[in-house]
Design a protein that fits this description.
Length: 64
């Protein structure tokens, strides 16, 4: 019986590659997930008013 050397190489390569299948595992973490949210929010509001309204606010400061 004559054995084809190319067939043996192909068989060995197939067996070796079959063992290299990646494994994917999905599991929940054992510790709870903590999210640190140290956020500093700053804002500025610029209001443009007419000169008449500005004068009214200066003269009658008790409006607000």
């Amino acid at each position: 019986m004559c054995v084809n050397p190319n067939g043996i190489v192909l068989l060995l390569a197939t067996l070796l590659l079959a063992g290299c299948i990646p494994r994917i595992e999905v599991a929940a973490p054992k510790e709870p997930i903590t999210i640190n949210m140290n956020v500093k929010i700053e804002h500025e509001i610029h209001i443009k008013v007419d000169k008449d309204v500005e004068a009214l606010l200066k003269n009658q400061s008790d409006l607000f």
